[in-house]
Amino acid sequence: MTDEPKTVEFFTHQHRIVGAAPLGVQRLTDILNDELTSSVELKDVRILRLLTPGKVVAAHDSALIDKQCILFAISGVQSGDAAERRFFKHVDTTEWGVFITVSSFELTGKFHVRGTSDLKTMLVAWTGQFIPLTEARAVFTLYPDVAFTGDVIIVNRSHIGVVCTDRPAAR
Predict the structure, then answer these.
(1) What global pTM score does this model have?
(2) Alpha-carbon distance 3 to 23, whole Å?
(3) 29 in a domain, yes or no?
(4) Domain assignment present for 105
(5) How many whole angstroms separate alpha carbon 100 and alpha carbon 90?
(6) Strand pairing class (93-102; 72-75)
(7) Is the dihedral of CA 29, 107, 67, 46 positive or negative?
(8) CA gyration radius for the chain?
(9) Cα angle at 16 between 12 and 22, to 5 degrees?
(10) Is residue 1 situated within a structural domain?
């Protein structure tokens, strides 16, 4: 495992912000759920408007992003690498396929629930502000052909409009 900064993408209501996050030995989920900090620091930052996804409107050496403004983030760290960063290496989970609306995005992916809890119980009991989804995809509803994918998408639960699910995904 390397401590070099990892590329991450943050999505706000209007922008996609791409940069290198100094994660150290932590996972992005851990940094976002750290209640002692209210922002995330990035280096080598590019800012793009959601309505013109391929056009960089600003580039800077560094930036701070207020966590409250983040709709979701896409981690550039593969889930295997992220698992190595976890304090407890193995946790039994049930995978739930979910469809989530967040502002002008539709997110799909798998939400991992510890033990045998149902999804509603887990969402109520979840202690962090940010929820990780694996095998995830985010579709920009104004331009449904524009989609962003990632091994892990981390969703700010305060921006979630709807969570839909069926039965746990088969393993």
Answers:
(1) 0.86
(2) 7
(3) yes
(4) yes
(5) 26
(6) unpaired
(7) positive
(8) 16
(9) 95
(10) no
Report the first-to-last Cα separation within the chain, whole angstroms. 27
The CATH number that applies at residue 141 is 2.30.30.100
C-alpha span between 104 and 127 (Å, rounded): 25
CA–CA dist 16, 148 (Å, integer): 11
What's the burial of 107, exposed, middle or buried (CB within 10 Å: 0-12/13-18/19+)? buried
- Over the stretch 12-43, which tens digit does the pLDDT of each residue have? 999 999 999 988 888 999 999 999 999 999 99
Query: Which amino acid is residue 114, in one-letter code?
Result: R
Residue with tokens 């996972």: 27
147-156/105-114 β-pairing: unpaired
Angle at the Cα of 29 from the Cα atoms of 98 and 62, rounded to 5 degrees: 125
Same domain, 83 and 121: yes
